[in-house]
Amino acid sequence: MIDVRAPIEFTAGALPSAVNLPLMIDEERHQVGIRYKNNGQQAAIDLGHSLVTGDIKEQRIQAWQDFMATNPSAVLYCARGGLRSKLSIEWLADIGVICPKVEGGYKSLRGFLYLYLMDYCAKHSFTILSGMTGTGKTEIIQQLTSGVDLEGAANHKGSSFGRPLDGQPAQVNFENRISLDILTVEDQMPETQIILEDESRNIGARHLPHYFADCMAQSSFVVIEMDFEERLERLWQEYVVERYLKTMAFFGPSGEQEFSNYLRESLLRVQKRLGGLRTKELLASMDSAIAVQHQDNFASHRHWLAGLTREYYDPMYSYQLDKKKDQVVFRGSREEVIDWLRDSSQPTTYTSPRHPHSPPPDG
User: pTM of this prediction?
Assistant: First the structure.
């Protein structure tokens, strides 16, 4: 999709498959908006033509043309399917390029996805993959054709140590991505039960829509059982080794300090639950591990990570899983759970009095 809205609009909310190739940049749009408010539509249109003309106009048409050359089935949209998309497809048509537009623009697309997800949750339940921290739930979700990766949509691993290097998407984009991922699975495998990872209502700074979280809470749970040492090894690899390599690649020379900051800040985020004294002790262990990480190949990081897992993550997950024990339909090893999920993707539909349809809160 070609999104011809201004960059500020695109950043606030867009489709995962869209590329922002604006008709007007932010400042041009701002000027046109002021002219529209003060002098009316025609004056605003005239100003827009005067701002996007000559080489600027040619560059923007060329960007659309280049995209269409490699994406011949692309469609184009603006905010509401009005003047901007109409003008864009007319300019393309002038050079012999035909590109359809989305009627109703982004607003109609967003509205469709919003209502689709609400409808889906009213008619279906999910299969929820659960288990203690370190059992590799996300990896399994990503391997399953019927899995939808909520953490991938949020760009966050869902824990205090799960913050991304490059930030999270806008809330609207997070919701759009979930809707599209579920729509894709339903379109390709309409009789398949969708599998989600057990998540809290918040994944980092993004939150699951209330009706979606409620639907998850009422679904069946499948639990991975894995011994502590294997889970610790997985966490060490993900939270320490892989994160260090990614941090160095992302930040370059300042990566060492950024990695240390990330570890310390992540631990301090759970200080309230750990308690001040225990947090101080784990920070000391962490600092010692950082000091020798290049001498012992990061091995010392296992010490503080083991304490954090036993005293914070495991009690928290045990408490949550205990509340859902009546909804657990299968428990087993990682391999047994994968086999069960692949063999048991049958739909579960029911009628439930959900929240009435309403337009998306972001319009």
Answer: 0.86
Residue 4 three-state SS: coil
SS (H, E, C) 164-201: CCCCCCCHHHHHHHHHHHHHHHHHHCCCCCCEEECCCC
Rounded CA gap, 191 and 102, in Å? 29
Overall average pLDDT of the 54-70 stretch: 95
Q: Check: CB of residue 2 under 8 Å from CB of residue 77.
A: yes
d(CA 221, CA 107): 35
> Which residues are marked as active site?
78
Band (220; pLDDT cuts 50, 70, 90): very high
pLDDT band at 162 (very low <50, low <70, confident <90, very high): confident
Q: What are phi and psi of 347, to 5 degrees?
A: -70, 145
pLDDT in tens, 256-299: 999 999 999 999 999 998 999 999 999 999 999 999 999 999 99
Are 317 and 132 a contacting pair, CB within 8 Å?
Answer: yes
- Number of neighbouring beta carbons within 10 Å of residue 48: 21
Question: Which residue reads 């469709």 in tokens?
Answer: 112
Tally of CB atoms within 10 A around 25:
15
List the structure tokens of 286. Answer: 């962490």
* Structural domains of the chain, with CATH: 2-103 (3.40.250.10), 115-363 (no CATH)
